[in-house]
Design goal:
233 residues, single chain, alpha/beta, 10 helices, TIM Barrel
Length: 233
């Protein structure tokens, strides 16, 4: 990646989140590499991927940049997205071009705060850091700590943030007007129209996952809609 990865690579484009849980049909590095390749062919400017194994496989399949994360569960901590420096180092070795981490104020392993972890990752790995946040205050703290970009990934997914019906466009507007680093719109984007709206509001790029990469949920949405329409006929 270039020294200005978000400006040069992602601006006003689509990043596809290629992830599958262990109980999902497409779980596995081979499936995720194929999904990432399909996203690249479709015009995505980057992918977001989880785990060293998936990232290494995707690296061999695509030429577009990878925002990597490493979900690790710890006792007594709700933070899972790259919660430690060691987790970040593993995906850096696998080929991630940028590191995404949970930058919320929630308790994390070793009691390190998000700002400390951001600084450690940047100084140790020499890679751009994407701060996944849930609130305006968390975004400002991450920007002050040196994050290279903010992502609205966790808005509505913490006990203290508000879940909206669809993307949290109000938070996006607030962040775009307050921080000087790129803001990636992520969380609840299900249509091209919503993505365009986010870009119109000033998002640097839009991250879409489930609406593209989880076929079982895409199918279920069609089935539910069909049943609803037939039931009302």
């Amino acid at each position: 990646m270039s020294e200005r990865p978000f400006t040069d690579t992602f601006q006003r484009g689509l990043i596809v989140s290629c992830q599958a849980l262990e109980d999902e049909p497409l779980h596995g590095s081979g499936h995720m590499a194929a999904m990432a390749r399909a996203a690249e062919i479709g015009g995505a400017l980057g992918v977001r991927a989880n785990s060293p194994e998936d990232i290494a496989a995707i690296k061999q399949a695509v030429s577009i940049p990878i925002i990597g994360l490493n979900k690790v569960s710890y006792p007594n901590s709700e933070v899972e997205i790259t919660p430690t420096l060691e987790a970040a180092e593993a995906i850096a070795r696998a080929g991630a071009d940028a590191i995404a981490l949970d930058a919320t104020a929630r308790r994390r392993p070793a009691q390190k705060t998000a700002d400390v972890l951001i600084r450690e990752m940047k100084s140790t790995l020499q890679l751009p850091v994407v701060a996944d946040i849930a609130t305006f205050e968390e975004a400002m703290a991450a920007a002050d700590a040196g994050a290279d970009a903010i992502a609205t990934t966790l808005a509505g997914y913490t006990s203290y943030s508000t879940m909206t019906d669809g993307p949290d466009l109000e938070l996006l507007k607030q962040l775009v007007g307050a921080v000087k680093i790129p803001v990636l719109a992520e969380g609840g984007y299900t249509s091209p129209e919503e993505a365009v709206r986010a870009l119109e509001l000033g998002a640097y790029a839009v991250v879409v996952g489930t609406a593209i990469t989880r076929p079982q949920l895409i199918t279920a949405r069609f089935v539910e809609r069909i049943h609803a329409l037939l039931g009302s006929a």
